[in-house]
Design goal:
The structure is a homodimer of 80-residue chains. By secondary structure, chain A is α+β, with helices and mostly antiparallel strands. The first copy, chain A, has one domain: Phosphoribosylformylglycinamidine synthase subunit PurS (Mth169, Chain: A), CATH 3.30.1280. Chain A is 35% helix and 38% strand. A three-stranded antiparallel beta sheet of chain A has the order 2-1-3. Chain A starts with a strand and ends with a strand. At the A-B interface, strand 1, helix 1, strand 2 and helix 2 of A face strand 1, helix 1, strand 2 and helix 2 of B.
Chain lengths: 80, 80
Amino acid sequence: MLKATVYVTIKQSVLDPQGVAVQGALHSMGFDEVSKVRVGKYLELELGTSDRAEAERRVKAMCEKLLANTVIEDYRYELI
Amino acid sequence: MLKATVYVTIKQSVLDPQGVAVQGALHSMGFDEVSKVRVGKYLELELGTSDRAEAERRVKAMCEKLLANTVIEDYRYELI
């Protein structure tokens, strides 16, 4: 069975308020060396298939249709 | 300057309601091959330091104190 790891990140040109909040919190805790924070999602999917090409095609469709909002987010995935 | 990539995942023994919801949504869209979904966080931190050992120590402290709730979450990080 294959496992897919999906990373969804906010595009560089889009403001990331969650990242700004985390950076602020880190600064207030004394971690002043942090100059930028971007927060994204990380998903692990277990797939009931072992056809690699098919899985690749299906995971791409899942990302496009549900897992990522491609207007403001980028995604990448790995099959293990 | 170093960059840290932090992955925060819910421990295997802890229920992941967000993952269950994503799995349900994928099933309702016809992606029936997905047998399990776990959702985590993915953070990119830009650090204003190039001392690798120091950065390692500091990022570990950030994870322990803010980025991960170690009662229910695991974390791992990479320095680039």
